[in-house]
UniProtKB/TrEMBL annotation:
<dbReference type="GO" id="GO:0016726">
    <property type="term" value="F:oxidoreductase activity, acting on CH or CH2 groups, NAD or NADP as acceptor"/>
</dbReference>
<dbReference type="GO" id="GO:0050661">
    <property type="term" value="F:NADP binding"/>
</dbReference>
<keyword id="KW-0457">Lysine biosynthesis</keyword>
<comment type="pathway">
    <text>Amino-acid biosynthesis; L-lysine biosynthesis via DAP pathway; (S)-tetrahydrodipicolinate from L-aspartate: step 4/4.</text>
</comment>
<feature type="binding site">
    <location>
        <begin position="166"/>
        <end position="167"/>
    </location>
    <ligand>
        <name>(S)-2,3,4,5-tetrahydrodipicolinate</name>
    </ligand>
</feature>
<feature type="binding site">
    <location>
        <begin position="100"/>
        <end position="102"/>
    </location>
    <ligand>
        <name>NAD(+)</name>
    </ligand>
</feature>
<keyword id="KW-0521">NADP</keyword>
<dbReference type="InterPro" id="IPR022663">
    <property type="entry name" value="DapB_C"/>
</dbReference>
<dbReference type="InterPro" id="IPR022664">
    <property type="entry name" value="DapB_N_CS"/>
</dbReference>
<dbReference type="GO" id="GO:0005829">
    <property type="term" value="C:cytosol"/>
</dbReference>
<keyword id="KW-0963">Cytoplasm</keyword>
<feature type="binding site">
    <location>
        <position position="39"/>
    </location>
    <ligand>
        <name>NADP(+)</name>
    </ligand>
</feature>
<feature type="domain" description="Dihydrodipicolinate reductase N-terminal">
    <location>
        <begin position="5"/>
        <end position="129"/>
    </location>
</feature>
<feature type="active site" description="Proton donor">
    <location>
        <position position="160"/>
    </location>
</feature>
<keyword id="KW-0220">Diaminopimelate biosynthesis</keyword>
<feature type="binding site">
    <location>
        <begin position="11"/>
        <end position="16"/>
    </location>
    <ligand>
        <name>NAD(+)</name>
    </ligand>
</feature>
<keyword id="KW-0560">Oxidoreductase</keyword>
Length: 267
């Protein structure tokens, strides 16, 4: 493995970005070479209030940052529109992306997969970096073999831009791989208030709660006659995501293809 991994990060002032900077600072093998931010062009990370004391330049122009910085890995923790643009730029520059940003469409994921293949550059897109959440998704996939009726309730802070969460979408996708397509609920059910039954993925329902007080929680509820099974994961601190970000940065150095979900890198 390379001795020092040069990392650049977009979204340094964000809730996740700030935690990720601390993780990079604490990891001997990682070196922050620069950041892409929406403001503070020409400044340094150590000059920005609230950010860790790291000597690394800030760029608002992502293209300039990719041109100038000698990075091995690019971490994006911004928003779907920005994250998608940044990820394409990173791949074009052969800088391996580790993407935590959620809310990409299926078409965007397919485009990034194709671009990673064309560029022969490894990329990890992780809907959730928390090991507990990855296990919650895996356990849900196991349970879905035996329970075909399932609803997902995801609960997040009210600053979240995308709904449903990336984790809920990925959970539904994993369940879909093992569950026969099925319309759930009463065949004649009608919503008297639009949206009451949530989003429909192949008959499964996803409900998104947005309230202050939450960070990230998800319940996957299975039901059949006489019993229910609930698989629940709760992130009570954003540190829960950081060992996964670190793992993804290490792993992306070892691959030359597209990976969607940390479970694909775990033994
Ligand atoms: N995969 C995972 O495990 C996790 C993923 N996430 C995802 O990570 C993303 C970030 O979440 P979170 O930190 O909570 O969000 P925040 O809103 O706290 O942070 C996003 C940051 O991105 C910045 N930003 C916006 N546009 C740009 C741009 N063009 N260039 C550079 N920076 C930009 C924002 O700047 P400004 O403040 O000026 O708007 C902000 O500082 C979301 O998509 C979220 O869903 C979150 C938690 C875990
Ligand atoms: O925005 C968040 O906070 C989170 N986003 C990710 C998602 O959309 O699943 C991961 C986690 O749920 C926190």
């Amino acid at each position: 493995m390379k001795e020092t991994i040069n990392v650049m990060l977009a979204g340094p002032r964000g809730k996740m970005g700030t935690e990720a900077l601390k993780m990079i600072q604490q990891t001997e093998q990682f070196k922050l070479v620069g950041c892409v931010d929406r403001k503070n062009n020409g400044m340094n990370v150590h000059d920005i209030e609230g950010l860790p004391n790291i000597d690394a330049p800030i760029y608002t122009d992502a293209e300039e940052a990719f041109d100038r910085l000698n990075a091995d890995v690019f971490i994006d923790l911004t928003n779907p529109e920005t994250g998608y643009k940044h990820t394409k730029l990173a791949l074009h520059n052969h800088i391996r992306p580790v993407i935590g940003t959620s809310g990409f469409s299926e078409e965007q994921l397919a485009d990034l997969k194709e671009l990673s293949h064309i560029q022969q550059t490894g990329i990890v897109i992780a809907p959730n970096f928390a090991i507990g959440a990855v296990l919650m998704m895996k356990f849900s996939q196991m349970a879905a073999k035996y329970f075909s009726n399932v609803e997902i309730i995801e609960k997040h802070h009210d600053e979240k831009l995308d709904a449903p969460s990336g984790t809920a979408v990925k959970t539904a996708q994993l369940i879909k791989e093992v569950r026969d397509s099925k319309i759930q609920g009463h065949p004649e059910e009608k919503e008297t208030l639009e949206g009451a039954r949530g989003a429909d993925v192949d008959g499964m329902r996803i409900h998104s709660v947005r309230l202050p007080g939450f960070i990230a929680q998800q319940e996957v509820i299975f039901g059949q006659s006489g019993q229910t099974l609930t698989i629940n994961h709760n992130s009570t601190d954003r540190q829960s995501f950081m060992s996964g970000v670190k793992f993804a940065v290490e792993q992306v150095m070892e691959i030359d293809h597209f990976v969607y979900g940390l479970e694909n890198l775990m033994e």
